[in-house]
Amino acid sequence: MQIIDRLYKEVEKKGFVCVGLDTSLDYIPEKNKKGKSIHDSIFDFNKEIIDATYDITAIYKLQIAYYESYGIEGMLAYRDTLAYLREKDLLSIGDIKRSDIAASAKQYAKAHFEGDFETDFITLNPYMGMDSIEPYKEYLESGQKAIFVLLRTSNPGANDFEVLKADNEELFYKVGDKLNKLNEKYIGNCGYGPVGLVVGATHTKEVEEIRKRYDKNFFLIPGFGAQGADSLNVYKLLKDNNGGVVNNSRKVLKAYMDHDDGEYNIGKYAREAVLKTREDILKNEGL
């Protein structure tokens, strides 16, 4: 089974929420850090979130910057969290946003699709050109790995470059069309290919056109949660409640902070936040 088919089935079974394990030490209760190393503090917290949500979460995303910032111990927590997800037969995204070409890109591919930091999907930045995507093709061809490439991001600064006109059309559509052409070479049984797109839910006027135009690309959808994207935008980026995963990081990781007994029930409140994310989006059905 291709990895994209597996993700499609996971969404069918567990819903479209992606839990972002973008774990900062600031998110962890003091009692959970006392007497522990940085590695143990982060890894134990991540395990608690995973154990409480694995049956309602399609895939987990680890933003590597949170782990890199803590040096070797942080990267060991990154490695061990990915290994724990594999041990539990769960899917993962390494949110690394790499952009390079030739030999350097090949080394990035090897680093994150093999070895200590192996993950199922990675995020890439395409703005050096399609030759920055080329070195990952051998992994796409295997069917066992896939990518999410930045297309229309959710941050305010996205409008600095992504919407600049190229041949009377926004630049991000030019990028998307090239990625779509590559994706069509590897379509799985589910009707989607392994070249996914990162599409933020903060751009109300574009979401329907993007979903229609890239109907065979799976979406990683940021912006819902701490960034406050409209739930209807998120819903429109999905297709039959599939075809994309909706990332929620801080709202899940920090959910326990809103409750008096939260530090003793981190997993419980993380689970409630995942279910609330799904509920808030599904309320748009039929609109």
From TrEMBL:
Recorded metabolic or biological pathway in which this protein acts: Pyrimidine metabolism; UMP biosynthesis via de novo pathway; UMP from orotate: step 2/2
GO biological process: 'de novo' pyrimidine nucleobase biosynthetic process; 'de novo' UMP biosynthetic process
Alphabetical list of InterPro entries matching this protein: Aldolase_TIM, OMPdecase_type-2, OMPdeCOase_dom, RibuloseP-bd_barrel
CDD domains, per the entry: OMP_decarboxylase_like (cd04725)
Orotidine 5'-phosphate decarboxylase domain ranges (all copies): 16-256
Keywords, sorted A to Z: Decarboxylase, Lyase, Pyrimidine biosynthesis
Entry annotated with the keyword Lyase: yes
E.C. numbers: 4.1.1.23
Pfam families: OMPdecase
Reaction(s) catalysed by this chain's protein: orotidine 5'-phosphate + H(+) = UMP + CO2
Enzyme class: lyase
A GO term for molecular function: orotidine-5'-phosphate decarboxylase activity
Active site per the UniProt annotation: 97 (proton donor)
Family assignment from sequence similarity: Belongs to the OMP decarboxylase family. Type 2 subfamily.
HAMAP family the UniProt entry points to: OMPdecase_type2
Record PANTHER family: OROTIDINE 5'-PHOSPHATE DECARBOXYLASE
Full protein name: Orotidine 5'-phosphate decarboxylase
Organism: Anaerococcus octavius
Lineage: Bacteria, Bacillati, Bacillota, Tissierellia, Tissierellales
Name of the gene this protein is made from: pyrF
